[in-house]
Amino acid sequence: xxxxxxxxxxxxxxxxxxxxxxxxxxxxxxxxxxxxxxxxxxxxxxxxxxxxxxxxxxxxxxxxxxxxxxxxxxxxxxxxxxxxxxxxxxxxxxxxxxxxxxxxxxxxxxxxxxxxxxxxxxxxxxxxxxxxxxxxxxxxxxxxxxxxxxxxxxxxxxxxxxxxxxxxxxxxxxxxxxxxxxxxxxxxxxxxxxxxxxxxxxxxxxxxxxxxxxxxxxxxxxxxxxxxxxxxxxxxxxxxxxxxxxxxxxxxxxxxxxxxxxxxxxxxxxxxxxxxxxxxxxxxxxxxxxxxxxxxxxxxxxxxxxxxxxxxxxxxxxxxxxxxxxxxxxxxxxxxxxxxxxxxxxxxxxxxxxxxxxxxxxxxxxxxxxxxxxxxxxxxxxxxxxxxxxxxxxxxxxxxxxxxxxxxxxxxxxxxxxxxxxxx
Length: 424
Prior knowledge:
Elements: H1 4-20, H2 44-54, E1 63-68, H3 70-82, E2 87-92, H4 99-113, E3 117-123, H5 132-141, E4 144-148, E5 167-170, E6 174-178, E7 199-204, H6 208-223, E8 244-250, H7 258-269, E9 273-277, E10 281-282, H8 285-296, E11 300-306, H9 313-320, H10 323-328, E12 332-336, E13 345-348, E14 352-356, E15 360-361, H11 362-367, E16 370-376, H12 378-392, E17 395-397, H13 400-404, H14 408-415
Helix pairs in contact: 2-7, 3-4, 4-5
């Protein structure tokens, strides 16, 4: 073997990595600045700003229901599916096996057998462990089934670019979004390490069109099929007088994604409280600075992340590598003790909230297709904050002095994750 080949291969790999890193151009810590006067989160001025930077329309007159953990989420999901009269669109990053996988498949198949147009889209990587007998059952029942971006040799650079969205839309009139995957880990009530903690919501009203659009975008790429017509896009009238909402979606691109810019704006506008729950927390420098800046101007910044019961220990260590800076900056950090916490929620000043598939890491901000539902409602923000407090009661707070005294081996393990953080 030519001795120059390893060097050439390494140089080629480095060039590929560098060319592919254009979308990470803020990796060195550059962030954003809010030009002009301060604006209040949830105000009309703030909503206009979020609409302008994300291109996601604000809608009014929507209803929302909050569901915590599988014992609430899955019955609501199956009920929603069984109510379909014309169309049912279902998208998930993760669909594995087990009892709940069979129950969800049965609900989808029943609707297809009843003549409903049922479209199921699963990420090809996230759902690689799915029981193939369920796919066969769906096909035989008349479900239109597709995988999103199956791995291909000529598209290896896109292997990281998955759809991480979790969506259910029925008749274009009712929708669900959140963090839950389809596997037995999400069943139950977070009562032990085998049953995870997660959050999902169900909405009705004009906002559902945004969820339908997020599904249709991924479905079009996967199948070439454009979903139009009254059965998918009916006229949606306001269903209440409350809750201005916005569906913000993003996809891998060069530069900054919509959700990344949205979160920067929301954090910068926080004035009293910022409560973040993230299943995978590995912020790059710009976001660490945004959180500490908020804490130093008097915002009660509290971050809730998984503890030892995590399914991705490497990501946890990458997040822990940022703890010292965050704690010294006044951010309070809590690790959930009973089980894996998989929820992805953000509440600011008790009035503006985000619930969806977005984690607080570069994978969500830059690499994957994501979607989050933003809600401007003090009532709903209060519900999320109440759940946040209940979760904190089951969590361990990280103390700065104790953290700084941890063993050298732990520090070395965290430091090793630094170079890989942009891919997490």
